[in-house]
Structures are given as structure tokens and as C-alpha cells.
Write a structure and sequence with these properties.
Blueprint: H1 12-21, H2 32-53, H3 62-86, H4 100-104, H5 108-124, H6 126-134, H7 143-161, H8 167-189, H9 193-199, H10 203-221, H11 232-265
Helix pairs in contact: 2-6, 2-7, 3-5, 3-8, 5-7, 7-11, 8-10, 10-11
Length: 267
């Protein structure tokens, strides 16, 4: 793990935990497992999956989808609750450049644990694309979809392994809260055409919410690129995040225009 700036006090518990324990968690000792999982995901999505379904009828998977969406609602709610109740999750907005251990103090280990659960949940998110393949929902498997899923996993891994920064917890709370709303929508939509019709007016709002989230992250993240931010971890994190978030924002904006603005003009 990259060392925190030498002018910051590092509690013995923090130093021991991050240097010795964090790499013992699954997926963190080496980048190979995450790279392997991501490549397998891409290979399934673009090669194995389409070949498998080529001469098959789409699967319903209604019960599985209901269970999966319900799991996501509970898991993301649990994550938000854990991070918020541990404390300091929103302090990072105005204390952006402060080291992780300084902001969270005695709760450092708990918050790092929450971030590891976030990584695990983002890996589980890959299942969603597999369901799309088995249901032959090819329109939902866009470059935006796969890029977003893969880069989120890599970004969380990099943050946890090398660039542990305080704002990661704020971003996780915001993102997981959005996922609670989003998967509640998906869960309700599994209850037939009538329910889907009632929910339809709200559909485009999820894309808008995602874009607003990205804009907020960009605005807050600029702090890490300012000269007065002397935390190298934060500088690296902000630079990587800015590029990735901007790409995601452009993808989502393009999707919003092509899906909602153009279709509205054609009516």
C-alpha cells in the first residue's frame, strides 16, 4: 500500500492493519484475481454467453431476478447503514484531503472492512449481465454497461489496495443509496406488465440520478488536485477518479440522449 504522507501521524493500529492485514483479505494480495475475474466476465458477455444462447429460447428467470434484486436492496441498505453508523462518512466532503486514519480514527478498521464488502458487492454485480444474456436482453448489454461494471470493480480495488482515501466512504454511501432505489425499481418491475407500465415514467430518472452523482463526484474531487492538498494518495485517487468518472458521465449522457431525447423527438 502506498504510504501516507510522512507529516501525518499514523496510529500503530492503522499501520499494522493496513500493512499486514488488508492484503490477507480475498482479492487484495495481488491484482491477478481481479484481472482474471474481469477478463472472464468480458469473455462470457461477448463470446461464451451469445454462443450459448444462439439457438436457445430466452430463460424467464423471474424468481431468480426477484431474489437477486431483493438481495441487492438488502445488501446496499446494509452497507449504507454500516458506513453511516460507523461515522465520518460525509465529513470527507469538506475534509477531502485528510488521511483516512486521521478522519476515521478508531473506526478506521471498520470502514476499511466496509470498503472490502463494497468490492465484493461490485463483483457480485457481474451476475446482472449474465441474467441479461440468459434472457436475451441484448439491448441492455451496451458498452456503457460492461465498461461501468468492470471499471467500478477495478476502481474500488485500486482504492482499497493502494489509494485508501476518506472520500471513498462518502462515494460508497451515495452510490449504494442510488442502488437501493434502482434495485427497488427492478424488483417491482418483475411483477408484470401492469407494474412496469406504472413505473415507466420514473425509468429515465435513474439515468439522471447517476449523472448527477458523477457531477457531484467531479466537483468534490477537484479538491484533490489543488496545490494545498498535500496527500499524495488523494492526488492519485482524484486524478484516476476524475478520468473514470468523466468517461462514465459521457457514456451515461450519450445513453440518455439516444434513449430519451431522440425517441421523444421521433414521436
Amino acid at each position: 500500500m502506498a504510504q501516507v504522507e510522512s507529516n501525518h501521524y499514523i496510529p500503530e493500529k492503522m499501520a499494522n492493519f493496513t500493512d499486514a492485514q488488508i492484503i490477507k483479505w480475498p482479492f487484495l494480495s495481488s491484482p491477478i484475481p481481479i484481472i482474471f475475474i474481469s477478463l472472464v466476465y468480458i469473455y462470457i458477455v461477448y463470446f461464451i454467453g451469445p454462443q450459448f444462447m444462439r439457438n436457445r429460447q430466452p430463460y424467464s428467470l423471474k424468481t431468480f431476478m426477484q431474489c437477486y434484486n431483493f438481495f441487492q436492496i438488502i445488501a446496499n441498505s446494509w452497507l449504507v447503514f454500516n458506513i453511516v453508523t460507523t461515522g465520518g462518512s460525509f465529513d470527507a466532503i469538506w475534509r477531502y484531503c485528510e488521511p483516512f486514519d486521521k478522519l476515521y480514527a478508531n473506526n478506521t478498521e471498520k470502514q476499511l472492512g466496509n470498503l472490502w464488502w463494497t468490492l465484493l458487492l461490485k463483483i457480485i454485480d457481474f451476475i446482472e449481465t449474465i441474467v441479461f444474456i440468459l434472457r436475451k436482453k441484448d439491448r441492455q448489454i451496451s458498452y456503457l454497461h460492461t465498461y461501468h461494471h468492470v471499471t467500478v470493480v477495478i476502481h474500488v480495488w485500486l482504492t482499497l489496495r493502494y489509494f485508501i482515501v476518506s472520500f471513498a466512504m462518502t462515494a460508497t454511501v451515495v452510490n449504494s443509496s442510488i442502488h437501493v432505489i434502482m434495485y427497488s425499481y427492478y424488483f417491482l418491475s418483475t411483477f408484470g406488465p401492469d407494474m412496469q407500465q406504472r413505473l415507466l415514467p420514473f425509468k429515465k430518472n435513474f439515468t439522471v440520478i447517476q449523472m448527477v452523482q458523477f457531477i457531484i463526484f467531479l466537483l468534490i474531487g477537484v479538491q484533490g488536485l489543488m496545490p494545498n492538498c498535500d496527500n499524495k494518495n488523494m492526488i492519485y485517487f482524484s486524478a484516476i477518479s476524475f478520468i473514470n468518472v468523466m468517461i462514465n458521465l459521457l457514456f451515461f449522457l450519450n445513453f440518455y440522449i439516444s434513449s430519451y431525447k431522440k425517441s421523444k423527438k421521433s414521436i
